[in-house]
Design a protein that fits this description.
This protein is mainly α and about 130 residues long. The protein is built from four helices and two strands, in the order αββααα.
């Protein structure tokens, strides 16, 4: 009898563990992503579309304030389009963790580049000795 009770408890614990892991899976763009890792796979953070929108706003603000040259803005927007295109390719087959990590690292790199370009103290043509244009 004691053996049957032990087996019943083990079975109940297993069923509970399986149901908890299934409940943690969520939908992301029509596909399941484990909620423990978030949309990016590394914890909760803004999703890809939100990050692209924020970067786009940062670029526009940088151009408006004179912190970014037109060339720097064009390069950043080109990279944004590449990331968007890659996201569409990945979405067609469903996102996996490696694909999400790839998009995430590209977005991180783009954010760093825009931040750097916005604070590199250039003033446009005719000022300083910045010949990179």
């Amino acid at each position: 009898m004691k053996k049957l009770t032990t087996l019943t408890l083990i079975g109940a614990a297993s069923a509970l563990a399986l149901s908890a892991s299934a409940a943690s899976a969520q939908m992301y763009d029509g596909r399941h992503v484990d909620a423990r890792y978030g949309e990016r796979g590394y914890g909760p953070r803004a999703d890809i579309n939100q990050r692209l929108t924020l970067i786009d706003r940062q670029i526009a603000r940088g151009v408006r304030r004179g912190q970014l040259t037109q060339r720097e803005a064009q390069v950043a927007q080109l990279e944004m389009r590449r990331i968007e295109h890659l996201k569409q390719q990945y979405r067609s087959g469903g996102f996996n963790r490696l694909e999400l990590a790839n998009l995430d690292s590209r977005l991180d790199r783009l954010e760093r580049q825009v931040r750097y370009d916005s604070h590199d103290n250039q003033y446009g043509y005719g000022y300083g000795h910045d010949y990179r244009r």
